Amino acid sequence: MKKLLLMAAVAVMGISANAQEFRFGPKAGFAMSTIKLDDKQDDLDGRKMSAKYTFYIGGMAEYKFNDNFAVQGEVLYSPLGAKEKIDGVNAGGMYFGESTKITFGTLLIPVSAKYFITEGFSVAAGVNVGLILTAKQKTVIGSDFLDVEMEGEGGDVDIKKDIKSLNLAPFLGVEYMLENGLFFDARYSLGVSNLSNDNSGGSVKNSFAQVGVGFKFGGN
C-alpha cells in the first residue's frame, strides 16, 4: 500500500511538473446551423431544412499538460436553428408560398481533448452539451401582393414545449494560435440527440458548424 501511495504521489508530481500552462479568454464567431427531420416528421423522408446563418459568443479555458496534449472547456451562447421556404401554388392566378424560421436559443458547453501538431496548430475532438433555453418558430405566408405573419407576437410562436432541452453534439475541430495569444478556430458538431417531444416517433436533430476568433490570456 505504501508503495502504491508513493507511486501515485510521484505520478501526480510528474503531471504537475510537466504541466505547461493554463489559458483563458473570450471567443466569438460565425455559425451555420441546420435541422434534419426524419421520415416520420411531416411525412417527408430525410427532410433537411436550409441552413441558418447566425453567431456565437462566450469564453474558453484551456489546460495544457505538456507540449502535445491539453483539455479545453467553453461556455457559449448561440441562437441556432434553421429555415425553410416552401414553393407555393397558383390559386386563381395568385401565387402563394410559405417561409419558416426556427430558432433555438442555446447555451453551449463544449468540452474537448486537444493535440498540438505544432506549438500553434492543434486538432480537437469532444462533445458539445447544448442546453436549449428557448425555442421559437416564425412562419410567413406570402403571395404576389402581401406577406402574412402567422399567429404570435411579431409572428414568433413559442414551441419550447415541443422541443427537448438537451442537445448532445460530438465535434471535431482545428485551431491556430499566434504568439500573442490571438487564435482562430473551426469545428463541426453533429447533432445526435432527438429534440422532438412528439410521441409519433419522428426525430429532430440540430447540427452546426462554427468559425471564430478569440484571445487567450495566461500561459507561462
Automatic annotation (TrEMBL):
Outer membrane protein beta-barrel domain segment(s): 18-196
Domain of life: Bacteria
Annotated signal peptide: 1-19
Gene3D superfamilies: 2.40.160.20
Pfam families xrefs: OMP_b-brl_2 (PF13568)
InterPro entries, per database record: Beta-barrel_OMP_2 (IPR025665), OMP/PagP_B-barrel (IPR011250)
Keyword vocabulary terms for this entry: Signal
Protein name: Outer membrane protein beta-barrel domain-containing protein
Annotated organism of origin: Chryseobacterium culicis
